[in-house]
Amino acid sequence: MVKVGIVGGTGYTGVELLRLLAGHPQVEVTVITSRAEAGRPVADIYPNLRGHFDIAFSEPDLATLGACDLVFFATPNGTAMKLVPQLLEQGCRVVDLAADFRLQDIPLWEQWYGMTHSCPELVAEAVYGLPELNREAIRSARLVANPGCYPTAATLGFLPLIESGLVRLSGLVADCKSGVSGAGRGASVGTLMGEVGESFKAYGVPGHRHMPEIRQNLAQLADQSIDLTFVPHLLPMIRGIHATLYATLTDEADLQSLYETRFSHEPFVDVLPAGSHPETRSVRGVNHCRIAVHRPQDGDTVVVLAVIDNLVKGAAGQAIQNMNIMLGLEETLGLQAVALLP
Ligand SMILES: NC(=O)C1=CN([C@@H]2O[C@H](COP(=O)(O)OP(=O)(O)OC[C@H]3O[C@@H](n4cnc5c(N)ncnc54)[C@H](OP(=O)(O)O)[C@@H]3O)[C@@H](O)[C@H]2O)C=CC1
Ligand SMILES: CC(=O)N[C@@H](CCC(=O)OP(=O)(O)O)C(=O)O
């Protein structure tokens, strides 16, 4: 069995890691941390985990974490970078669900995240953990930067169009909507039911920290800089992201077959039949990204619809997919559930 540790076990992504790892046949969670809940059994706080984990939360401690084969960080931005150098030295492999190692441009990261990076030398070594883009590099990585939720949906949706050079690299639009669990478990007025229920709004229009991450991914695909407008919205639901992506075609192509061919070997990307409209509930609780590609009225505009569960393919599920690849395990282990519908 592979020994796994989780730093930040009481947040939504930490508990989602536990839910998914409960069904993983080759992993044993040996350490799970929470400073606030240290000493309390996991199942005391999360009754859905009763009978699955006989383990208590503990304080983050380098000695116990260092004894793990792999450690997940499900912590706020700026936490992992303080412990990762020591864990790597002790021979641990690390998957960070936060953003500490996602942007290769350190000054840009410091500008968006409002702090000084404490181990910039490790950023160049870190592999951006989108398997559909970087699978080979993930296999041998010591440190994987798990992508953000919006960047996962937007990058997968745009990927075939940009990789094939079929669209203009300016004027790209990512119009994205998320459920409130994307804001984490911490209490805030903005995510109260009374604030979010029966309402709908955009936020972060002047700038959102996922903008540079999506741009970095698309520029890697295009091998040159791209121009993108990204607008996130908050939906009155708990889980799910719906990305509506727009691009302008520069060449003729069979878009349906482009998408089907590009993702034909991807276990977690499902290209829906032509004319489909994917629903967020079709991926609730599972690691899939479901995609539909449209060309309205046969014009030059391509509209791509991509849905994911922000806590699964947008966070914990993708982190486990990365772990499976890093450890040479079957990539889909622990990730074979079927979405909950309705
Ligand atoms: N929610 C989502 O859809 C997505 C989230 N992410 C990212 O995953 C990370 C976790 O998100 P989420 O689960 O929502 O977060 P939460 O804020 O809900 O949970 C944070 C967890 O981290 C622990 N923690 C906080 N500060 C520290 C610290 N200094 N040292 C050690 N542990 C700490 C907390 O426990 P305690 O304070 O008791 O130690 C808690 O268990 C974030 O970086 C988020 O951006 C990524 C993609 C999607
Ligand atoms: C709905 C909502 O608030 N979503 C979060 C993004 C989700 C996320 O956790 O992204 P990171 O992993 O990059 O932190 C936001 O807009 O800040």
TrEMBL record:
Its main location: cytoplasm. CDD domains: AGPR_1_C (cd23934), AGPR_1_N (cd17895). The gene is argC. GO terms for biological process: L-arginine biosynthetic process. It is found in: Cytoplasm. Gene3D superfamilies: Dihydrodipicolinate Reductase, domain 2, NAD(P)-binding Rossmann-like Domain. PROSITE patterns: ARGC. The lineage of its organism: Bacteria, Pseudomonadati, Pseudomonadota, Gammaproteobacteria, Chromatiales. NCBIfam families: argC. This is N-acetyl-gamma-glutamyl-phosphate reductase. Keywords: Amino-acid biosynthesis, Arginine biosynthesis, Cytoplasm, NADP, Oxidoreductase. It comes from Sedimenticola thiotaurini. It holds the Pfam family Semialdhyde_dh. The keyword Cell wall biogenesis/degradation does not apply.
